TrEMBL record:
Presence of keyword Chaperone: no
Name listed for the protein in its UniProt record: Uncharacterized protein
Keyword Transmembrane helix carried by entry: yes
Keywords assigned: Membrane, Transmembrane, Transmembrane helix
Domain EAL: from-to ranges: 23-277
Domain of life of the native organism: Bacteria
Length: 278
């Protein structure tokens, strides 16, 4: 028992070492990931709760490195944000998503909305607006068919900067949504200050809403609040029919989750959408 304290301290040191080491590994491989074309985008359908039709997709970044294998975004996005690598990576995502939307439009799917996740680092970048504008022009995108998803905590940390940038994005005609709503360090007053179109109810609330009255209350209140403010609601992480039905009954406009489809590559998505329609 006496040595356990020392053992614990020792274990602790080792694990810190491992964390630092893993981080350095990630960072090192992340630096060359763009030039080695190791990134791809997958697209997860968003469903109109009333009609059951697919109304758009969320673009989700994937990284495959030959040495590390498939690395989930929850592991590499924070490293990319800390090192500044999220800037070129985020630019690639923006360009790739605009190019893909354009290809879908040419194939007759111009009614699909492309939602793109935006990091706080990108939002704080004064060059973001020009970048967005230039891709819209280059790929002849319909601004109203593009949507940017921003997490609440990101908004809070940049609130002074964010209002101006978000306003300018709005003026381009691009839609804005707050991601993971309910999990940030939010003041509800921000909902009034930011020119947003949609709230995405965080999947942690959706997951337990049928079993946990507290989660149900949060979902219900979020939908009511969003509607009072004239916003559309998106339920994320819908994994079963019960959740889909409950969210629909509460008036949630859009649904997204494994119950409908996992994130798909562009070919599989077009195929999936075709099957859904018939
Ligand atoms: P997010 O924006 O909240 O994206 C939703 C995440 O939930 C995705 O994880 C998606 O695959 C997963 N998901 C979707 N439906 C279900 C479901 O029914 N059940 C469960 N359990 N999960 C579901 P993913 O792709 O691993 O992405 C994780 C996070 O990484 C994203 O969370 C987003 O914050 C970030 N991310 C992904 N792509 C990008 C990107 O291009 N740029 C930036 N800045 N962040 C990104
Ligand atoms: Ca998102
Ligand atoms: Ca989310
Ligand atoms: Ca819970």
């Amino acid at each position: 028992a006496k040595s356990s304290g020392r053992d614990a301290a020792c274990l602790f040191d080792v694990s810190i070492d491992q964390v630092v080491h893993e981080r350095q590994m990630l960072e090192q491989h992340l630096k060359s990931a763009l030039e080695h074309q190791e990134f791809t985008l997958l697209y997860q359908p968003k469903i109109d709760a009333q009609t059951g039709q697919m109304v758009g997709v969320e673009a989700l970044l994937r990284w495959y490195n030959p040495e590390l294998g498939q690395v989930p975004p929850s592991r590499f996005i924070p490293v990319a944000e800390e090192t500044g690598l999220i800037k070129p990576i985020g630019t690639w995502v923006l360009q790739q998503a605009c190019a893909q939307w354009s290809a879908w439009r040419d194939a007759g799917y111009g009614h699909w909305v492309m939602a793109i996740n935006l990091s706080a680092v990108q939002l704080a970048d004064p060059g973001l607006l020009d970048l967005l504008r230039s891709y819209i022009v280059q790929y002849r995108c319909e601004p109203s068919q593009l949507e940017l998803e921003i997490t609440e905590s990101h908004l809070m940390h940049n609130s002074h900067l964010a209002v101006g940038t978000l306003q300018a994005i709005k003026e381009l005609g691009v839609m804005l949504s707050i991601d993971d709503f309910g999990t940030g360090y939010s003041s509800l007053a921000y909902l009034k200050r930011f020119p947003i179109d949609k709230l995405k109810i965080d999947q942690s609330f959706v997951r337990d809403m049928l079993d946990d009255p507290a989660d149900m209350a949060i979902v219900r209140a979020t939908i009511a609040l969003g509607h009072e403010l004239g916003l559309r609601l998106v339920g994320e992480g819908v994994e079963n029919q019960g959740q889909a039905q409950q969210l629909t009954a509460l008036g949630c406009e859009e649904l997204q989750g494994y119950f409908f489809a996992r994130p798909l590559d562009s070919n599989s998505l077009v195929q999936w959408a075709g099957v859904q329609r018939h």
